[in-house]
């Protein structure tokens, strides 16, 4: 009796790409998370005004919106993998040069360059997963979402000790190493692709003239901005990001205002970031197992609501509970990353949806930290800010209900031309 055929290894031939995806994800929040813990030291050295320091809270989401929207265009022009290399090189260059600048304008300008690479990486990773891991969307999305959570949580823990021992410039510039290391797997992938295309051209040159050509590259048959699914995903993404960035910007001050010290507020902020790890593992895996994952969105939205109400009405009564709930609230984000691939048929569709949803979403969220600060200053408290945040969670739930419906992007966008 013949032996059964060996079971194929699901990851064989794709380990290098998986490593590249995880390293890119590990870089996607470093330029943001490495600055805030040492901002006071940076401000004294490069003369950042209060307004310019406040602008640093808005620059990330604006950069993510702008350069994330451009990423699909760049990928169509030079290819997905070369675009990832470009994104990481931009990120590394921005991080290194801003750590050497002597002026506030230079610091802000090179921060934009660093964030441009990260904004491109945000958008390029979902279609990369779609291209290389269409059979492992849940696990791979979970893995790189965890890597992004580590990218958010680690710099705040190391930035201050590094700055104290080596100076703030080394503390900021040293993170560029992560971006440079992330380019290595993709340079290998690009080189292999060039060699493979060269071999293919030589084979076709020697082949008979009637040899059938390879299938042409898929191009989308519609416009993503005409899709209700795309708009719902963008709004859901935007409201989730708005709440996340408001908390990243203002949570320490909220805790100071209820009587806790600044150091305590910083520790709770680190916990807020670390709690993204379990959500990053669970949410994408649930998304691939249920037809309509709206219940997952509802659970994370409920965490936001309960955390806000607790921090607003009885902040010291059960502070650890409120912080855990708020830390779990952004768990909709990794779910949405998985849905970008689960609601598209091709990597081209995933690239279009990723660029649109993240570009528009980050644009919607950009006003969040500023509006929260304005409401706080105008009212002298946080009640109006909490009311605003609760309203945005309501919008998130409504848009999330549309996003989670089992509908494919390519079935909802209108054709480019009508016959």
UniProtKB/TrEMBL annotation:
Read off the InterPro entries from this record.
MFS, MFS_Cyanate_Porter, MFS_dom, MFS_trans_sf
Q: What are the TM regions of this chain, as residue ranges?
A: 55-75, 107-125, 137-160, 172-195, 229-251, 266-287, 294-313, 319-340, 352-375, 381-402
Q: Where in the cell is it found?
A: Cell membrane
State the Gene3D superfamilies in the record.
Answer: MFS general substrate transporter like domains (1.20.1250.20)
Keyword list (alphabetical) reads: Membrane, Transmembrane, Transmembrane helix
Any Pfam family hit: MFS_1
Major subcellular location class: membrane
How does the record say this protein sits in the membrane? Multi-pass membrane protein
- UniProt domain Major facilitator superfamily (MFS) profile: residue ranges: 13-412
GO annotation, cellular component aspect: plasma membrane
Q: Which GO terms describe its molecular function?
A: transmembrane transporter activity
What the entry lists under PANTHER family is as follows: 2-NITROIMIDAZOLE TRANSPORTER, PTHR23523
Q: What is this protein called?
A: MFS transporter
């Amino acid at each position: 009796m013949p032996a059964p055929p060996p079971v194929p290894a699901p990851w064989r031939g794709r380990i290098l790409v998986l490593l590249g995806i995880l390293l890119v994800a590990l870089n996607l929040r470093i330029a943001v998370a490495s600055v805030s813990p040492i901002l006071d030291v940076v401000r004294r050295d490069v003369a950042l005004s209060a307004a310019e320091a406040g602008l640093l809270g808005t620059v990330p989401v604006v950069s993510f919106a702008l350069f994330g929207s451009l990423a699909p265009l760049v990928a169509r022009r030079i290819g997905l993998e070369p675009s990832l290399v470009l994104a990481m090189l931009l990120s590394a260059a921005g991080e290194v040069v801003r750590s050497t600048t002597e002026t506030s304008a230079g610091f802000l300008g090179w921060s934009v360059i660093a964030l441009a690479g990260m904004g491109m990486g945000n958008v390029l990773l979902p279609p990369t997963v779609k291209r290389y891991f269409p059979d492992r969307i849940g696990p791979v999305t979970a893995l790189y979402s965890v890597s992004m959570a580590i990218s958010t949580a680690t710099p705040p823990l190391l930035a201050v000790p590094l700055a104290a021992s080596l100076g703030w410039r080394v503390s900021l510039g040293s993170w560029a190493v992560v971006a440079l290391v992330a380019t290595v797997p993709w340079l290998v992938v690009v080189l292999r692709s060039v060699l493979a295309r060269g071999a293919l051209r030589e084979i076709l040159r020697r082949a008979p003239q009637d040899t059938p050509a390879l299938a042409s590259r898929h191009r989308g048959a519609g416009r993503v901005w005409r899709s209700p699914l795309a708009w719902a995903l963008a709004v859901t993404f935007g409201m989730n990001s708005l709440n996340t960035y408001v908390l990243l910007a203002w949570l320490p001050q909220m805790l100071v205002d209820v009587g806790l010290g600044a150091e305590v507020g910083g520790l709770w902020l680190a916990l807020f970031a670390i709690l993204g790890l379990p959500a990053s593992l669970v949410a994408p895996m649930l998304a691939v197992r249920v037809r309509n994952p709206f219940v997952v969105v509802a659970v994370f939205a409920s965490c936001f609501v309960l955390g806000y109400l607790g921090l607003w009405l009885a902040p010291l009564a059960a502070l650890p509970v409120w912080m855990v709930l708020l830390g779990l609230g952004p768990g909709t984000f990794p779910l949405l990353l998985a849905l970008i691939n689960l609601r598209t048929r091709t990597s081209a569709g995933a690239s279009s949806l990723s660029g649109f949803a993240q570009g528009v979403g980050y644009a919607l969220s950009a006003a969040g930290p500023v509006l929260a600060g304005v409401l706080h200053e105008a009212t002298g408290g946080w009640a109006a800010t909490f009311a605003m945040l609760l309203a945005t969670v309501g919008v998130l739930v409504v848009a999330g209900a549309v996003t989670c419906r089992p509908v494919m992007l390519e079935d909802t966008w209108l054709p480019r031309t009508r016959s």
